[in-house]
Specification:
CATH topology: Glutamine Phosphoribosylpyrophosphate, subunit 1, domain 1
Number of strands: 11
CATH superfamily: (Glycosyl)asparaginase
Largest sheet: 7 strands, mixed
Oligomer: single chain
Distance between the termini: 19 Å
Strand content: 15-25%
Helix content: 25-40%
CATH class: Alpha Beta
């Protein structure tokens, strides 16, 4: 494909007040950078960085997922690539790293799986089935984690993962596994959202910010600012990260949102 693309990555640790988690996000970003610098793919870098975030109990994803109202722990995750592949899982039990299951769906005929069916599919493919530790719901805590990566071929990958939201019923589905809501990746542009899932879903936030950049030529920062100002009600906590075919990744939010970017 000619000249190599400069690899890059951007990651966030959830929108909303919570424990200091900037260093944790930077550690995951460093993992992505190491993979990309070694010639690894965007998918590998995004997944492995997301796994670090899922394994870190400070985040509401994987190990640190919050209990639902009935005491259950249910995990969502998604992965989308710039070449049109997508995989997502919804409300999985006993799956500390749901992003790995989402990654295995990229090359399947089906895109998404939910609940017991998702876990059975994961069992058949050797994904560890382990009780997730979880943690009690907290009034102030960050939620979704997300990583967007670009490799030296110019390919992009966007990974997101969450344990849901405190105070919600067992069947509740947020923005993370819903294409266009919690994430959108197409061609040389990727956007991921975090915050109040219902607001993100109702506004189709990630896709509409993506379309804003494509249709107006807005910068990543300007488009993310537009999305929050125009599509999200005042006082609703939301954040976004984005990465294009060149340049560095960017983050923008209307609340606390640890994020970090790296360019090779």
């Amino acid at each position: 494909m000619g000249d190599k693309t400069t690899p890059a990555a951007v990651a966030h640790g959830g929108a909303g007040p919570g424990p200091d988690r900037q260093h944790n996000v930077e550690a995951a970003l460093q993992r992505a950078a190491e993979i990309l610098q070694d010639g690894g793919s965007a998918v590998e870098a995004a997944v492995e960085a997301c796994v670090l975030l899922e394994n870190d109990p400070v985040f509401n994803a994987g190990t640190g997922a919050v209990f639902r109202n009935d005491g259950s722990i249910l995990l969502d995750a998604s992965l989308q690539t710039s070449d049109g592949r997508i995989g997502f899982v919804i409300a999985m039990r006993d799956t500390p790293n749901p992003i790995r299951v989402a990654a295995d769906l990229l090359n399947e005929e089906i895109n998404g799986l939910a609940g017991d069916g998702a876990r059975a599919w994961a069992d058949a493919r050797g994904h560890p089935k382990t009780a997730v530790e979880g943690r009690p719901p907290k009034d102030e805590s960050g939620d979704t984690v997300g990583v967007i990566t670009r490799d030296s071929t110019g390919s992009l990958a966007c990974a997101t993962s969450t344990g849901g939201t405190s105070g919600r019923p067992a069947g509740r589905v947020g923005d993370v596994p819903l294409p266009g809501s919690g994430f959108w990746t197409q061609g040389g542009l990727a956007v991921a959202s975090t915050g109040v899932g219902e607001a993100i879903t109702k506004s189709l936030l990630s896709y509409r910010v993506y379309r804003r950049i494509r249709s107006t030529g807005d910068s990543l920062d300007a488009a993310m600012q537009w999305g929050i100002d125009e599509l999200i009600d005042e006082g609703v906590s939301v954040g976004l990260i984005s990465l294009g075919s060149e340049g560095e990744g960017r983050g923008h939010s209307n609340t606390d949102m640890p994020w970090a970017a790296w360019t090779g």
